[in-house]
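Incident log, structure service

09:12 report received: a user says their structure output differs between two submissions of the same chain.
09:20 pulled the input from the user's history:
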Amino acid sequence: MLHLSNIELAYIAGFLDGDGSILLQIVKQKQYKYGFTIRVSVCFYQKKTRYWFLLWLKKKLRHGRVHLRTDGMAQYTLTGFSLVYTVVQALLPYLQIKRPLAKLCLKVIESYDRITTKADFLEVCYLIDKAAKLTDSKNRKYTGAIVQQFFDSPVETFPPSFPPSSSSEER
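09:34 re-ran on a clean worker, output below:
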């Protein structure tokens, strides 16, 4: 991010404050160590007619993905801990509206690097719950409480013959 001037950083921060988002998500998948993982992203949005602007922004930030959505919008997304950390840290001094969320994002990323137990992971999930309150999130599928419930539930075990054979009696 050192290749950007303070004016460019301030401009991009203003754009993020207005037409962007900092996303902190709990994602469920069986292959993850705790059954869940954390995803962090920074997104910028524009109408499809201003797709060129997101391409300019991508050229400035040198990372991420720009795509056209089916709803007439274009989206530029930066995903991943080190990339999001670098971008958010560089924009933080210039952010106004999203400053508390940006600080929480940095804390989540720093905390994620220190996870060694389920309790540590759960603590990060509860930080993400705090972030959801700052973003007026409405459509969250996974919360700290859901992760806690998952950790507390007994592990299902199946007999050695699982899955069952497909005999006519079982149909």
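09:41 both user submissions now match this output. Likely a transient worker issue. Closing.
09:42 reviewer note: The chain has six helices and four strands. Residues 14 and 95 are 7 Å apart (CA to CA).
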